[in-house]
Amino acid sequence: MKGAKVNLKTYGEIGNSKKNADFTLEETLLTHYDALANKSQAVARKYFEENLHGLNGFKHLMVEEAIQEYLIEIRANVPFPGPSWGEEKFTFIDLFAGIGGFRMALQNLGGKCVFSSEWDKAAKQTYRLNYGDIPFGDITKQEIQKLIPQKFDILCAGFPCQPFSRAGVSARNFLGLQHGFDHPTQGNLFFEIIKIAAKHQPQVLFLENVKNLKSHDGGNTFATIERMIKEIGYSFFSKIINAETEVPQRRERTYMICFKNPQINFEFPDFKGISKKLKDYLEESVPNNYTISDAMWTGHIKRSKRNKDRGTGFTVSLADLNRPSNTIVARYYKDGKECLVPQLDQNPRMLTPRECARLQGFPETFKFHPSKKSAYQQFGNSVAVPVISKIGKQIIESLHL
């Protein structure tokens, strides 16, 4: 590039000198530049000029050219960069993004991700490795929320669900539309979705949570979620879906689809059929270090017997390879008790990270985190990609996009 000495080669790399170092705001802004600057997003452009300190002193055109070169370079080296501008069928934002299960599914349907947010440092690294974008951090911060593009079609969120401190809270109260409301729910991340949806008015909210969301607090939590979504002008459709016909894992989750257009009568796709077999997704050759130790296996057996005798707590059993596995969770890295693969003449073994990726429907070219612990945690927290894809396809058809 002529006339400018802008060094961007170190931005967005996974290997920082500090083991637990997070990405900088500059790095994050750079990877979102084309999405935030698209269609003359004045607020975003101003924010770039104020915060990209490493690029100050150059004419804006030079800076923009340097950034575009950087984006082309990093996206040439990631497996899932997504469609380019002008090629997308719709746009979406990816909140509480994790390692991008929603993004993977919606990109495959022709969607363009225009904003992503995730607070966990390791998950952000994995996201960067696969999509080229670094998610912004804490979505509760106003300086982050103001960078969300004004217009997008779908809001995606597999949101954490902390207990609501007042089940009767209304959307009008929370958004400050009634004078004198004493906010009782700070820290509950669902309410950030309400704020963002109320401000940006996307066509669809595509939400996912644990199965027990519907029964939490005697149903009051779920009733509050439904009421608040309806109060900001959306319809509300929900269903508990088991992923076992799409991936080899019994994984029940609550899905919520909410449309701005009240005329859309959404029907969830059919997930009936034959369950996937775990044996069809296992690697052929697995290193011995995935075999659990004698001490761990003995401990599992003793705890299982003790818990069975007293009628409480978990019990461990070997996976039936002709059936789906039990639900893989974030703690799987500790001892693998959710799914132990039987082996001939030796102790059972844990699933490998690649097998966990398969259990969540990620493609073989997906790059998992180099830390085994982080990789297990991230796959345990992820959505099942084929389920999101199937529901997403139905959403797109309903919108006639």
Provide a descriptive summary of the structure in words:
Residues 1-18, 55-59, 164-168 and 177-187 have low confidence and may be disordered. Helix content is 35%, strand content 11%. The longest helix is centred in the last third of the chain and has 17 residues, at 294-310. The strands form 2 sheets. A 6-stranded mixed sheet has the order 2-1-3-4-6-5, with helices on one face. Strands 7-8 form a two-stranded antiparallel sheet. By secondary structure, the chain is of the alpha/beta class. It is built from 15 helices and 8 strands. It has helices spanning 25-31, 33-37, 42-51, 60-75, 101-108, 121-131, 142-145, 171-174, 190-200, 220-231, 294-310, 332-335, 353-359, 372-381, 385-399, and strands at residues 90-95, 111-116, 154-157, 204-210, 237-242, 252-259, 340-343, 346-350.
The fraction of residues in strands falls at: 5-15%
- N-to-C SSE string, H for helix and E for strand: HHHHEHEHHEHHEHEEHHEEHHH
Percentage of residues assigned to helices: 25-40%
CATH-scheme architecture of the largest domain: 3-Layer(aba) Sandwich
Unreliable segments (pLDDT under 50, ≥5 consecutive)?
A: 1-18, 55-59, 164-168, 177-187
What composes the largest sheet? 6 strands, mixed
What spatial form do the alpha-carbon principal axes imply? globular
Q: What is the tally of beta strands? A: 8
CATH topology of the largest domain, which one? Answer: Rossmann fold
Q: Give the count of helical stretches.
A: 15
